[in-house]
Amino acid sequence: MATSSAVPARTREIRLKHVLFAALALLFVFVLWHDERFIIVHSHPNFAYYFPVRWFIIPHGLAGLAALLMGPFQLSTRFRQRHLQAHRIMGRFYLVAVAIAASMGVYLAATHQQLLQDKMWVFALAGAWLITGLLAFTAVRNGNIAAHQQWVTRNYALTCVFITARILNTFPIPDKYEDAPGWMLLLGTLLFAEICLSWQSTFTNRRPQLAKRAASAE
What pTM value is reported for the model? Predict the structure, then answer.
């Protein structure tokens, strides 16, 4: 009975991951068309804005894209179990990509962003991105696999801000709110990651198990 009851729960978990990654993929395609098409459409206003710093934009964008695409494989339990060596190698590349993208983002914000509040937001995002990546690396080097998986989840949630921040910018938010929506997005991203990490331990009803143990102890 214990084995049969565990299978549906595992199936639900896989389906939820698939839904989240499918939604992320659709949002990614929209962002490419809506925000990044200036790469090939040079008449787009963003082309003239980013052209002077193109040699920093290119590694920033490519590294961020690499992290975005490798993240789902790092979070896949099935991929990790079947291809452990590939998972480890890809994990190293993922963390290097995060370090490059975050570092380039900090430099671009410091030298190219005009508004101080925009710079502070990028600095906060990049700092959290680098710190969670460093903690994930430290955890796995020390053999703390559970902690490593948690920090990778938080880190990839921040990686996805590349998409969610651009989706947020498509909404007609009044200027009086300034950068408040961006900060709320960062907070919401980290909160969402924590909910995902603690969902099972928080919402699983363990009262029947506790009652059974208490009855057997008597």
Answer: 0.81
